[in-house]
Each structure stands twice: as structure tokens, then as C-alpha cells.
Amino acid sequence: MSRFLTLTSAALMLTACGSDPTLSANPPAEGPAIWTLADADTTVHLFGYTQVLKPDVTWQSEAVSTAFNAADTLILETEPATPETQSDIQQTMRSLGFYQEGRTLGATLSDEQAEEIGTVSAQFGVPLTALDPLKPWLASMQLGVVAISAKGYDLTQTPVATLQRQATERGMTIRSLESPTTLMQKIAGLNEDEQIGMLLHGARTLRDDPEQTARVNSAWLAGDVNSIAETLHGDGGDDSGAWPSDAVYTLMLTERNEFWRDDIATLMETETGTYFIAVGLGHLAGKDSLVSMLDEAGYTVLRQSRQDP
What we know:
This protein is α/β, with parallel strands linked by helices and 309 residues long. The protein contains 14 helices and six strands.
């Protein structure tokens, strides 16, 4: 499930483009994109990060560093990793992601589906039988993680981990927009057909577009939000970035952006200070991006200029 790894921290998901007047007035430049909205006593910087990078990639531009260093509070997409949150994640996976009473993934899939997914998973040294204990949503997540690892991406030294470490060193307040299990609980609530569709879509993306992550990361490092939107959300007018279904797109992207838009509106109205909000890059690209939603809500969201790291 490579797209879930891109747009959220779990596996994928989870960005506005040409139709957004704010972005149209600010053409891409080198360095990851960052936006700012402010009133008399509150400033919010919005930063979209990639979930995985190859080792030793430099990504913190001067604009990103300046915004981060000016902030009093770091707000992450999900709660920072702690022994407690890791325990919650494991418990959620066990209770919602594993079959009970002898049922298996292979028996749930049709023969054609099993063959298609098994062919892809075998390319990464994972026979379909190894995924048998997992429900389709968790099998999709696991397949995406295995594929990313096999391609040499570092799953530990991520941009969000770097931000968290730097915030801790600076003594910044660290908050989050949702718990790490919130999205998993929602995905697990999808009906079985939707979950199988996610698994098939992820496997087909790994098979048909093996360089998707590399392409998205290149666009991210160049500040090319339009290309991110085209690849992840299909905003270029073809089906290459289509999600598994409208239901999955709504669950993983638009509903969460709506919640976060409201959270930011409340923050602007009730709190003071400077905030650095970091979410998966897919949430800040495309027609349903958090940037577009804030713009439509009446906020002036300005894209910052970038310079080479």
C-alpha cells in the first residue's frame, strides 16, 4: 500500500495545485513547500513531509529551518512515538488486523486476486502465505512497508523523526492532530471489498509504477506540488494517481483535512504564538488539500519562498 505510506505515517496516504489561487501566484522553487497563515497574535506554518527517504538526503531548506526555528510548538499529524503509543499500535493491529478462528487472507481472496497479489509480494521475498494471518487492510500496509525497505529507504531517519528530535532538543511543546491508531481504526472499519481493493491497488502500484516513491520524493525536494498532486491524486487528468475508491479517498484524505482545517481555525481563534504543523505531503497537494480548505474558509495562506538547503 505504497500510497498510504506516502500520505500518512502508517503505510500511505497520505497538497493544492493549479486551481488554488494561492499556489498559482507562487510558482515552485527548490526545497520542500511550506505555507504560512497568520493573524495579529498567531502564526501557523504548514509543512508536508515525505514518509521515507534514502539515507543522507538533505531536505531542510533555509525557509523550512527558519519557520521551524521561529515556532514555539510543533504539531505532528500523529502522536510522537513513545512506548505507550507503540503499545497502542500493536494492540490495535492485533485486535483489528488479524483474522480469528482460522480464517486466512488467501481463503478470503478469489483465486485471481490471490495470484495477482502473491506474484507481487513474492518479488519482495514475501510469499502470500506469510500474509495469511492479516486482514486485507493490514496486509496492504505490511506489503508497502516490505517494498519500501527492499528499495533501500530508511524507515527510522525520516523527516518527521528529525523534526521531533530537533523540537525535543529545543524544548518545544509537541502536540498532535490525531492518535496513531485513529486512522487504523477507520480503515479497519471499511467493508471487506474496500479493503481488498486497497490491497489490490497497492500491489498493482508496486508492480506497474515501482518508482512512484522516488518520483514523489524528487517532486517534494523540488517543491513541485503540482507533480505530487498528479501522482498521488490523479490531478493531471488521467488514472495514474487514482485512489482505490472514492470511499478510501474520503476516509484517508478529505475527511481528515476537514477535521484539521477546523482544528487550525480553532487554534487561530483561541491561541497565541507560532506553530509548525507537519503532516504527510499528500494532505497539502491537490484540489482537496488542507491548503485549499483553509483558503476557502477565508484564511490567507501564503506559500513561502525557498532556497537551496
